[in-house]
Specification:
The complex is a heterodimer of chains A (231) and B (767).
Chain A: H1 2-14, E1 20-29, H2 46-49, E2 64-67, E3 82-83, E4 85-87, E5 96-98, E6 101-105, E7 108-113, E8 120-124, E9 131-136, E10 141-146, E11 150-155, E12 163-169, E13 174-176, E14 182-189, E15 191-198, E16 205-211, E17 216-218, E18 221-223
Parallel strand pairs in A: 1-17, 1-18, 3-7, 6-12
Antiparallel strand pairs in A: 1-14, 2-13, 2-15, 4-5, 7-10, 8-9, 8-11, 11-12, 15-16
Chain B: H1 12-74, H2 80-87, H3 91-105, E1 110-115, E2 120-125, H4 132-138, H5 140-147, E3 152-158, E4 161-172, E5 175-185, H6 188-198, E6 201-206, E7 209-213, H7 218-234, E8 247-251, E9 254-262, E10 272-279, H8 281-332, H9 346-419, H10 425-450, E11 458-462, H11 463-477, E12 482-489, E13 494-498, H12 499-517, E14 522-533, E15 547-555, H13 563-567, H14 586-596, E16 600-606, E17 610-618, E18 640-644, H15 648-661, E19 664-668, H16 671-680, E20 687-691, H17 699-709, E21 715-719, H18 722-731, E22 737-740, H19 745-757
Parallel strand pairs in B: 12-14, 18-19, 18-20, 20-21, 21-22
Antiparallel strand pairs in B: 1-2, 1-5, 3-4, 4-5, 6-7, 6-10, 8-9, 9-10, 11-13, 14-15, 15-17, 16-17
The chains are: A mainly beta (231), B alpha+beta (767).
Chain lengths: 231, 767
């Protein structure tokens, strides 16, 4: 993550322009009212949560905020591949891909080094980039270049818990939220854009943002299923 | 009933109660036993049936489970993930894969992957307590079967736990890669589920250990293990077999029926089994409660029955007790006791009969008492009469001698009187002597009459004259305050009677009447009247025969008598007079005399007003023959008379007297000599006068001898006692006439005259 931020900063510096602002803000998830209430015994309403997945909305992060469409001249993709590591298994939960969400600009090559001692596999059947890297063991590393924008879900054929999302974007103006939901997109040319907040499981939200010549514009998002019709 | 005479004596109540209660208790006991037995048997049968059903369910459930397991796991290896992982054939990868599966995806506890050649590649376990080597070892048959191409389920034990093990072949591109073996424990939750389905306690056994159980009792487990050990060794069971022995398992406060079964393992492991426990406690408790209820109800029933029976028995025995009490009372002589008859049953009848019996007893008792009373009176009377008879006999004997003495006195007195001048002092004195002699003679007559030794001398008696005579006598003896009146309204006053006796009757009645009036004075009335009893009889005096009667009322105005007194007035020895004044014989003698004369005597009295005795005597139509006036001796005409008497003075007196009257008298005081004299000249005597009571030869014998010598000898028998006269009567016709001593010469000479006058006529009758 640090490396990614550094990269972004470097990229921003390189494409320095006189009229550029920063989009900053906070993204958080919110569930239906009362969804977080305890469904303990004696609570008659617990019945309705009986078969529902319990989600702690406050724990949800890994949001991605990005500008839609092609912005400006479209910066070139990074030269070095971005790594998605296959971490060693911790506890009994099995191996994981890390990071779980990886936003990249089109043309970026992503490599999957296997740090585990057992066989793993990386494959995707997503429209944007179907691939299968086959089974390989440490210290083998395999790479994939994503040349089309779109969402690519990658899995391990053996371990069902292992999966990651490569979000292939059209421009480099995106940011992942930190642990507290904050994000910052710097060096955005002044103008009016459509800013989208995305999450793996929640419906996205698009807001129109006017980026000033200098300075910051703050855009906060609250994602969630809030306006469902009532039954 | 309460008074038991011996210890073994039981009251009626006890006799009824003891068998009744005994029968009831027996009945209850038998009922209890039967119910207990039946219900116990039924319970056991039901439990056994339930167990068999439960086992079927149990096995069926397990069968379904294995089938489900097989279905679930059969297709798992076809998943790409499985294929991908297993295809690596890399033990680590596969082990990790298996571990991952155990970590969340599968609910099994053991996993194992073997290559197609049976080589173990990787295995995993959910718990470190499970022995993988044992798993590998025991799952071999199943794996082998899978290698042969058939997915299967086996039951086996690993580390004291039971497992359903599913082995499925893994193929890739139609090539057998290996065999994946899943082990799913049949654990506590399964046991609980099975228990819920079968409604039995489920204990799953692996060898001598309890693998899982729906119950948590160590001592129960021990018994189950023991039971399993004993049963499974005896007879290896087959699936679905019924009628297997059902064993009793008893724990404190817990009772079960247990059914033992074994799982069929591919490996043929005999140590896998189960025990199904059918809880009997509640049923047994119910049985116990039922038993208790029966006991209570029975107890209450017995108590109630006892009360009712004793009440009934009391009701039955109450009359009996009453009867007993009454019988006792009657036994004591209390005849007033009666038993209440308040029911119409046998007891009531008994009581009625008892009452009747009491009444009868009472009357009998009274009669008896009366009889005893009468008997006592009779005895007293008898004693008295015996006494009197003795006196009479004595008096009779004395009278005989006394008569002779009197005869001599009177006879010689008369002779003296004839010899002295009529107005001389000697004559006066002599008359006094004769008078006194006469009175003594009367007294003797009275004594003889009383002792019935004198025959009544019946004749025509003029009652009017007799009454006058009596009145004269009474007048002289009774006080002047008593007025005597006589009235006669009759056509004829003659009756056939003994004038002496009638005289006695009149004197008696008159004396009684004067006694009744001696305190205040009054009037004694003797009224003579005619009375006639018609052919139909008289209502007034029913005992009289029809015919003409004379009626004499002797009425006084004295103190009268109570009716009770009146009833007994004719009883002998009954007297109202103080001791020494009366003999009590008077009225009874009167009664006897009147009855003897064919008459009747009645009495009527009012206390304080007076008494009337009424005498009825049959009237005689004959003329008066015997006159009291014509008692003069008749002179003789030199007829020869033989006089025999053992007493010399009397013989002398009679000889002198008869000689003076003009008879020729030959006198003897020895009867034998007299007979000799008679033998010497039987025809020389016109009349023989002989005494009866004589030594050596009695008058009767003498008479017989004389009659034998001369048949027509007229013999007159003289006697002082009536007995001799009766004997003389028997001597007829030898003795023609009898004369009572002391001899009245008028009477005697008339007899002599009759003899001589009737001489040609042998038969002569005394009037």
């Amino acid at each position: 993550m640090k490396r990614l931020l550094l990269l972004l900063i470097v990229t921003g510096c390189m494409t320095h322009a006189a009229h550029a602002g920063t989009i900053t803000g906070l993204v958080r998830a919110q569930g239906k009212e009362g969804a977080n209430e305890a469904a303990g015994p004696g609570n008659y309403d617990s019945r309705k949560f009986k078969f529902a997945e319990r989600i702690d909305y406050s724990e949800i992060n890994e949001f991605v905020v990005y500008l839609e469409g092609i912005v400006g001249t479209n910066a070139a993709p990074p030269q070095k591949p971005v790594q998605v590591m296959t971490n060693r298994r911790i506890n009994q939960k099995g191996a994981m891909f890390s990071p779980h969400i990886l936003p990249v600009v089109v043309g970026t090559t992503v490599e999957w080094p296997n740090h585990d001692e057992i066989f793993h596999n990386v494959f995707s059947i997503s429209e944007a980039k179907p691939f299968d890297l086959g089974l390989y063991k440490h210290p083998e590393v395999k790479r994939v270049t994503f040349d089309k924008p779109g969402r690519v879900d990658a899995f391990c054929s053996i371990h069902k818990a292992m999966n990651c999302v490569i979000l292939v974007l059209e421009n480099p103006y995106f940011a992942s939220t930190d642990g507290r939901g904050r994000y910052e997109i710097p060096n955005v040319l002044a103008g009016v854009y459509k800013l989208r907040a995305w999450h793996e499981r929640l419906p996205g939200q698009v807001k129109e943002v006017t980026v000033p010549e200098t300075g910051e514009v703050r855009m906060d998002f609250t994602l969630g299923i809030t306006n469902l019709p009532k039954y | 009933m309460h008074r038991s005479t011996s210890p073994t004596h039981l009251s009626f109540q006890a006799k009824v109660l003891i068998p009744a209660v005994g029968i009831m208790v027996l009945l209850v006991a038998v009922t209890m036993w039967v119910v207990n037995r039946r219900i116990s048997r039924q319970l056991k049968r039901e439990a056994a049936q339930s167990l068999v059903t439960a086992e079927a369910v149990f096995r069926n459930t397990l069968g379904i489970r294995t089938k489900n397991l097989l279905l679930r796991f059969r297709n798992l290896p076809n998943e790409p993930r499985y294929l991908a992982a297993l295809n690596t054939a890399e033990p680590n990868t596969i082990r990790h894969f298996l571990e991952e599966l155990l970590g969340g995806e599968l609910d099994g506890q053991l996993l194992q992957y073997k290559a197609a050649d049976g080589q173990l590649i990787a295995n995993a376990r959910a718990s470190l307590a499970l022995d993988l080597t044992e798993f590998e070892l025991r799952s071999r048959p199943s794996v082998q079967k899978a290698i042969e191409g058939e997915g299967n389920v086996d039951t086996l034990r690993v580390s004291r736990h039971l497992f359903d093990v599913v082995s499925v072949p893994v193929t890739f591109n139609r090539q057998l890669l290996g065999v994946l073996t899943f082990g799913t424990e049949i654990g506590q939750s399964e046991a609980a589920d099975l228990s819920q389905t079968t409604r039995c306690g489920v204990v799953l056994l692996a060898e001598n250990n309890v693998a899982a159980a729906s119950l948590q009792q160590d001592d129960l487990f021990q018994q189950c293990v023991a039971l399993f050990g004993s049963v499974s060794k005896l007879a290896p069971t087959k699936t679905g077999e019924t009628g297997r022995p059902v064993e009793q398992i008893a724990l404190p406060e817990q009772r079960y029926l247990g059914l033992v079964g074994t799982f069929n393992s591919l490996s043929g492991d005999p140590g896998l089994g189960y025990v199904l426990l059918y809880p009997q406690e509640s049923a047994l408790r119910e049985l116990q409660a039922t038993r208790r209820t029966i006991v209570w109800v029975s107890l209450i029933g017995i108590v109630l029955s006892t009360v009712v029976i004793s009440w009934l028995v009391r009701r039955v025995t109450q009359p009996l007790r009453q009867l007993r009490d009454s019988a006792e009372a009657v036994g004591r002589g209390d005849f007033s006791r009666r038993v209440e008859v308040n029911s119409s049953d046998e007891c009531g009848e008994l009581a009625g009969v008892f009452n009747q019996m009491t009444a009868n007893l009472k009357s009998s008792h009274e009669q008896l008492e009366k009889s005893v009373e009468t008997l006592k009176t009779m005895q007293v009377q008898l004693v008295q009469s015996e006494k009197l008879r003795a006196i009479g006999t004595l008096a009779g004997g004395i009278a005989h001698d006394f008569n002779n003495i009197l005869g001599a006195i009177l006879g010689f007195g008369e002779l003296v009187l004839e010899d002295v001048p009529g107005d001389s002092r000697t004559a006066r004195n002599m008359r006094q002597i004769i008078k006194a002699g006469q009175r003594a003679k009367d007294l003797v007559r009275q004594i003889l009459a009383f002792s019935r030794q004198s025959e009544p001398q019946r004749g025509n008696v003029r009652l009017g004259a007799l009454i006058d005579e009596t009145v004269k006598l009474l007048r002289a003896t009774i006080p002047a305050t008593i007025n005597i009146q006589t009235r006669a309204t009759v056509t004829s006053d003659t009756v056939v009677a003994d004038s002496t006796q009638l005289h006695q009757v009149l004197m008696n009645l008159g004396t009684n009447a004067s006694h009744a009036m001696r305190d205040k004075g009054g009037t004694l009335t003797m009224r003579l009247s005619d009375f006639s009893v018609p052919e139909t009889g008289s209502a007034e005096v029913p005992r009289l025969k029809p015919g003409p009667y004379l009626r004499l009322d002797v009425t006084d105005t004295g103190h009268g008598m109570e009716p009770a007194l009146l009833e007994r007035i004719f009883e002998p020895f009954f007297t109202t007079k103080p001791v020494g004044e009366g003999t009590g014989l008077g009225l009874s003698v009167v009664h006897g005399i009147i009855e003897h004369h064919g008459g009747e005597i009645t009495v009527a009295s009012q206390p304080g007003q007076g008494t009337t005795f009424t005498i009825y005597l049959p009237r005689s139509e004959m003329k008066d023959t015997v006159s009291a006036a014509s008692n003069e001796p008749l002179p003789g005409n030199r007829e020869r008379i033989l006089v025999v008497d053992d007493e010399e003075p009397l013989v002398n007196m009679m000889q002198q007297k008869l000689t003076r009257l003009g008879y020729e008298v030959v006198a003897h005081h020895d009867s034998v000599k007299a007979l000799e004299a008679f033998q010497a000249a039987p025809g020389s005597f016109d009349v023989v006068i002989t005494d009866h009571t004589m030594p050596r030869l009695t008058g009767a014998d003498l008479a017989r001898e004389m009659v034998r010598l001369r048949a027509d000898t007229p013999i007159i028998l003289c006697s002082g006692s009536g007995q001799a006269l009766i004997a003389a009567d028997l001597l007829r016709p030898a003795v023609r006439e009898c004369v009572l001593k002391p001899v009245n010469f008028g009477e005697l000479t008339r007899s002599i005259r009759r003899m001589i006058d009737q001489k040609p006529n042998v038969e002569g009758k005394q009037p």
